[in-house]
Amino acid sequence: MLRLVKLELQKLWLNKTSRVLIIISFILPFTVIILSSIKIPFFGLFTLELGELGIFNFPIIWHITTFFASYFKFFFAIVVVSMIGNEYSNKTLKQNLIDGLSKKEFILSKFYTIVFFSLSATILIGIASFFIGLIYSSYTEASIIFREVEFLLAYFVKLLGFFSLCLFFGMLLKRSAFALGFLVMTWFVEGIIYLVMETQIGGDLPDKIFNFFPIQSMYKLIDQPIQRIAMTKFPEKTNMAYDYAVHWYEIAIVLGWSALFIFLSYRLLKKRDL
Description:
- By secondary structure, this protein is mostly helical.
- The chain has one domain.
- The protein has 13 helices and 2 strands, in the order ααββααααααααααα.
- The radius of gyration is 21 Å and the shape is globular.
- This is ABC transporter permease subunit.
């Protein structure tokens, strides 16, 4: 496994564009979280300090940081589809197979790299959230600090699922631009299908079915925290309550999609004439 990851990382690091995108993927969400925790003066009129709003309190900080950090996954999505696009355009895929790398090892090298970057991003966000929480949180009890830490697991699974989908589209279309376009199209198609179901069926069934769709199931892993923040400010408004918890079945759905995308990527490579 380490040999395959090392091989893939060498390829990515030698590519200037991939190297820049990888650095941005790791640094940008980490930097945004740090910057959002400091005082920001607005032309001497007032000072914005998000920490004073209570959003960096434990345990809600795990929810907030993972939700907003997940939006930066698109930078690494470009890296993932480029991993495949460059293999075809530079003909390194065929050369790797000639040099003795099996098709299974080729796909595994991509998958292990996805796992590596997803885990690294999760650890960085976890560390940043932990220390910012220690600085700003009103709660210091260990039972409260580590409550809802499962949002980090959801964040990891979310990245894993999304990058596995990117890998599949990269293998299917062979071109980075086409793969990214297909990724955006999938989001629109899911939305259109949902609207059709809502119109034709109605009730709760469209929502239940929609939550099994690839993109939507990844989004549902970490629900938006804005409503939760509002709930802390207006606890008397019970109509604002909603289920924001991380559920095991949501993780299982995304892991299922991840496994399917990796398997389909392997089947494509196995049957394709190189």
